[in-house]
């Protein structure tokens, strides 16, 4: 019984599994006996890109709700090793070690926030990289509200003014004001070593972002980095030390370190080189999708670490891994459009198109698009209906998100 093993249940892993199940269903008797298994550390599909938000109630979906209806097995275990020669992976289930074989492997283990060895960051820093990390931050903030006399209780330092850092910083003032209920006047400071915020967002978006941060009451400090974290205090490269009970690290991402176990050169983000069909170049029987893979999405650009690319990469990898296994046609991945929709909290959002990130919508118009993306577009069907799940997993490219009835507003 040939097995396709998918490592990971994020945007790429989930959709790879569903797409593989769809392809098996399409092929009928020609795919009899093919078994699809997902192995992932936690038995959930997390809507990771929403972790900066205050309410995460709808951001964790049990895998059984998504995979059981389409006949995909799932194992809750952390993969620690890949044996390419034996075609198996080693995984940990608590104290128990399990070996899981495969005929074809889809590595979709995602990425993780890159935490440098800054003194105190591991012990006292927070992040919104995972559902558990975001929940830990929320519990910490609630604790401060109960003990406002803690040194720096009124101050949150967000480190990293990229997309995640900006979205987190814009969300925090309103969130903190609600938590502290006028007992304290919260301060949010956004710190980045770059000379400008939103360095990846392009020149036309930057004034919109800067105005939104100001309107939201976020203080910005650029050209400096974090050098140390302690209980109730942070030190910056400028020589400044300030009271702050909360540091949220949002600076940089790296592919899951499982990529280092494959004998191929990795890019600067630790990603695997893949061909147009998502096969890892130079490694037989292994596909990669999502944040662990550097895929060509058009003639001049590689994929970015985002659900925008992770979801279609997963769908194509799932379709193609079954084709590769059974000697059937495969489909080349190409994504002809690129957009960024950045949440700016109460100030709205900014929507850009193209790799130069030209602003086409701001304010309430862009915010409506962002809310549709975050609450509808990136979700799988939640009804448990088999046909709906399989239909959603088709390796067809979505059109770009609707940006509302107006342009820049």
Radius of gyration, whole Å: 22 Å
The amount of helix comes to: 25-40%
Low-pLDDT stretches are: 405-409
Instruction: Please report the distance between the alpha carbons of the first and last residues.
Output: 57 Å
Q: What order do the strands of the largest sheet run in, or round the barrel if closed?
A: 5-2-1-9-21
Largest sheet: 5 strands, parallel
The class by helix and strand makeup works out as alpha/beta
Q: β content, as a range? A: 25-35%
Overall average pLDDT: 95
- What is the overall shape? globular
- How many beta-strand runs? 25
Explain what this protein looks like in three dimensions.
Helix 1 (11-27) packs parallel to helix 7 and helix 1 packs across helix 9 (386-392). A five-stranded parallel beta sheet has the order 5-2-1-9-21. A five-stranded parallel beta sheet has the order 11-18-12-13-14. A three-stranded antiparallel beta sheet has the order 6-7-8, with no helix packed on it. The chain has helices at residues 11-27, 63-67, 121-124, 131-146, 163-180, 206-215, 307-326, 363-377, 386-392, and strands spanning 3-7, 35-40, 44-46, 60-62, 73-76, 78-83, 88-93, 96-101, 104-107, 111-113, 125-126, 155-159, 187-192, 218-222, 226-230, 233-236, 241-243, 246-249, 253-255, 272-273, 286-288, 293-294, 339-343, 349-353, 358-362. It is globular and about 65 Å long. It contains nine helices and 25 strands. The termini are far apart. Mean pLDDT is 95; it is low at 405-409. The protein has 409 residues and is of the alpha/beta class. Helix 1 links the parallel strand 1 (3-7) and strand 2. Its cofactor is FAD. It comes from Mycolicibacterium porcinum.
């Amino acid at each position: 019984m040939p097995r396709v093993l998918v490592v990971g249940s994020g945007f790429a892993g989930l959709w790879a599994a569903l797409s593989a199940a769809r392809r098996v269903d399409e092929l009928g008797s020609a795919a009899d006996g093919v078994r699809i298994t997902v192995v992932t550390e936690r038995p959930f599909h997390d809507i990771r890109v929403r972790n900066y938000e205050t309410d995460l109630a709808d951001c964790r979906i049990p895998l059984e709700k998504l995979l059981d209806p389409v006949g995909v097995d799932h194992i809750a275990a952390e993969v620690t090793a890949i044996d390419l020669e034996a075609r198996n992976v080693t995984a940990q289930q608590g104290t128990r070690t399990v070996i899981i074989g495969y005929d074809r492997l889809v590595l979709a283990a995602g990425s993780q926030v890159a935490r440098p060895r800054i003194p105190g960051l591991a012990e006292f820093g927070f992040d919104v990289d995972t559902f558990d990390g975001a929940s830990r931050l929320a519990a910490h903030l609630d604790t401060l509200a109960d003990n406002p006399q803690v040194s720096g209780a009124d101050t949150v330092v967000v480190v990293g003014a990229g997309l995640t850092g900006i979205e987190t910083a814009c969300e925090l003032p309103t969130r903190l004001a609600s938590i502290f209920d006028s007992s304290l006047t919260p301060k949010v400071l956004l710190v980045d070593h770059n000379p400008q915020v939103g360095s990846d967002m392009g020149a036309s978006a930057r004034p919109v972002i800067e105005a939104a941060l100001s309107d939201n009451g976020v203080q910005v400090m650029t050209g400096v980095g974090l050098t140390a974290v302690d209980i109730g205090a942070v030190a910056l490269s400028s020589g400044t030390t300030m009271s702050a009970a909360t540091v949220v690290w949002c600076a940089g991402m790296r592919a899951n370190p499982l990529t280092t176990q494959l004998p191929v050169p990795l890019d600067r983000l630790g990603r695997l080189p893949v061909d147009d069909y998502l096969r890892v170049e130079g490694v037989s029987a292994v596909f990669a999708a999502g944040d662990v893979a550097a895929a060509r999405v058009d003639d001049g650009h590689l994929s970015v670490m985002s659900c925008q690319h992770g979801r279609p990469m997963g769908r194509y990898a799932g379709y193609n891994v079954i084709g590769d296994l059974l000697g059937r046609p495969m489909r080349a991945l190409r994504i002809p459009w690129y957009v960024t929709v950045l949440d700016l909290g109460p100030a709205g959002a900014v929507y850009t198109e193209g790799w130069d990130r030209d602003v086409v919508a701001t304010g309430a118009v862009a915010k409506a698009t962002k809310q549709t993306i975050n609450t509808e577009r990136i979700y799988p069907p939640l009804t448990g209906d088999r046909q709906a799940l399989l239909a959603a997993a088709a390796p067809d490219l979505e059109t770009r998100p609707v940006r509302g009835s107006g342009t820049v507003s």
